[in-house]
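Quiz preparation item.
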C-alpha cells in the first residue's frame, strides 16, 4: 500500500493546523493535549500520507513549506465543513426524535385524521408530524419495519390484523359504519336497492385485496354477497374513488359514514339497503408495545384516556 492509500486520521489534520498556528512542536502538542513524541509522529504520518514535507523544520519558528501553504486552506475548510455537518446531523437526529410518525389508510387520512389530530392538539402540544397515506397492507408493512410509530386504520373484532397482539397494541379512537350507498334517481329514490324482490343483478363497487375495508367486507359479507345476485363491476382500494364511482351511478359501494356524511346530507348519495346491511367498524390507532419516544408516549397517554372515557359507540350490531 503506497503512502497515498494509507488511512487518514482526522486528528492529524487538527495537529497540522495547531503546528501551523503555533510554529513550535512543543507548544502545539500542549495545545492538542498530547505528548510531543506522539504529536511529531502524527505530523510525520500526515506528510507521508500527502507524500511531501508540509513544514520547514529548519526555520524558527517552524513554518509551512509551499506545499503546506497550498494544503492549509483545504484542511481548514474540510474540518469546518465536517463540524457544520456534524451539528446538522445531530440537529436532524434530535428533530426526528421529537417527530411523530403516522401511517394512515387513504380514506382516514382525508376524512378523519385532520379533525382527530386537532382534538389531540387541544390537549397536548405536539412537535413535527409526518404522515404517510397508503392502503392497509402497505401501512402495516411500514409498522412491521418500525418506520412509523402509529397506524390509523379501520378494524373489526372479527377480522385479524397482521399486527399481532404480542408486538403491537391498539386503542379505539372512534366508531364508523360501512353503509351501502348509491346515486339517486331524479325522483330521489336509489338507483339500486339490495332488498328488491324479484331482483336483477346488483352492481357492486368492491375493494381490492390490499384494502383494509376490503378485508373486513370479505370476512363479514362474502357469504351474503355470494347468495344474492351481486355482480362486481369495479374494484379499487381507494374508498374515495369508489365514492366517486357510486356518485356517477356505476353501482353500490359500502363506504365509511365518516367519508360520506356530507354526501348523504346533500342527497348526492342515498342508502341502497336496509340497516341489516350496515357494518359497524372501529377506527383504531396501533402502536408497538416497545417503548417509543417521549412525545409519542405522551400522545399515547392522551389517546388511551380518550379511548376509556370519551369514545361513544353508536354503531349497532347487524346480522349479515
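Solution:
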Amino acid at each position: 500500500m503506497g503512502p497515498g492509500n494509507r488511512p487518514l486520521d482526522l486528528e492529524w489534520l487538527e495537529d497540522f493546523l495547531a503546528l501551523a498556528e503555533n510554529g513550535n512542536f512543543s507548544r502545539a502538542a500542549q495545545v492538542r493535549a498530547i505528548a510531543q513524541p506522539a504529536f511529531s509522529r502524527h505530523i510525520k504520518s500526515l506528510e507521508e500520507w500527502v507524500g511531501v514535507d508540509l513544514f520547514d523544520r529548519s526555520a524558527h519558528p517552524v513554518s509551512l513549506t509551499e506545499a503546506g501553504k497550498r494544503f492549509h486552506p483545504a484542511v481548514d475548510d474540510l474540518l469546518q465543513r465536517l463540524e457544520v455537518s456534524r451539528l446538522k446531523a445531530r440537529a436532524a437526529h434530535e428533530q426526528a426524535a421529537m417527530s411523530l410518525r403516522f401511517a394512515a389508510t387513504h380514506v382516514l387520512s382525508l376524512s378523519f385524521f385532520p379533525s382527530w389530530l386537532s382534538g389531540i392538539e387541544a390537549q397536548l402540544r405536539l412537535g413535527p408530524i409526518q404522515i404517510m397515506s397508503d392502503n392497509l397492507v402497505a401501512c402495516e408493512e411500514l409498522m412491521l419495519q418500525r418506520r412509523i410509530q402509529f397506524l390509523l386504520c379501520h378494524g373489526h373484532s372479527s377480522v385479524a390484523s397482521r399486527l399481532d397482539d404480542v408486538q403491537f397494541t391498539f386503542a379505539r379512537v372512534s366508531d364508523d359504519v360501512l353503509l351501502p350507498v348509491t346515486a339517486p334517481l331524479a325522483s330521489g329514490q336509489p338507483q339500486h336497492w339490495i332488498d328488491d324482490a324479484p331482483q336483477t343483478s346488483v352492481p357492486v363497487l368492491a375493494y381490492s385485496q390490499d384494502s383494509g375495508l376490503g378485508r373486513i367486507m370479505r370476512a363479514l359479507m362474502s357469504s351474503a354477497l355470494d347468495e344474492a345476485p351481486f355482480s362486481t363491476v369495479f374494484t379499487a382500494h381507494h374508498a374515495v374513488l369508489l365514492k366517486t364511482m357510486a356518485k356517477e351511478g356505476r353501482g353500490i359501494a359500502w363506504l365509511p359514514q365518516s367519508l360520506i356524511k356530507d354526501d348523504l346530507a346533500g342527497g348526492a348519495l342515498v342508502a341502497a339497503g336496509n340497516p341489516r346491511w350496515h357494518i359497524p367498524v372501529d377506527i383504531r390507532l396501533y402502536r408497538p408495545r416497545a417503548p417509543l419516544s417521549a412525545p409519542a408516549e405522551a400522545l399515547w397517554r392522551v389517546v388511551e384516556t380518550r379511548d376509556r372515557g370519551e369514545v361513544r359507540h353508536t354503531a349497532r350490531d347487524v346480522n349479515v
